[in-house]
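Researcher: Good morning. I'm working through a list of sequences from a screen, and I'd like to move beyond sequence-only analysis. For each chain I'm collecting a predicted structure so we can compare shapes side by side. This is the next one on the list. No need for commentary yet; just the structure.
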Amino acid sequence: MQVLLNTDHHTDGGHDMADHLTVVVKEAVAQFGAHVTKVVAYIADENGSAKTTPDDIQCTLEARLVGHDPVVVKDRAGSAHQAIHGAAAKLKRAVGTALAKHDSRQMQQRMAASPDDF
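Model: Good morning. Structure tokens for this chain:
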């Protein structure tokens, strides 16, 4: 699985941040194995360097799933690390929900096609 980091010009996107992102995201979606092919992160300081508010860092995570539409989640926090953790937790739930819905639909289609088999 690829994990890519994109930042605005107000946010540090160095190797330490990329490594942290990779560890947190891979841990969050590890249970989904090969279903997740890529996660793209967008981290931005919503207020720029002008002022600081408690939740001015936004992390958007977009997961690309095999055979599904992308799953996108966002989280805001006071630091990039906190926003990454919050978004990763949301991503874990969202990917699980997307895959469960897909599995449920497949089962319903199979049952409709051949009800005697179930």
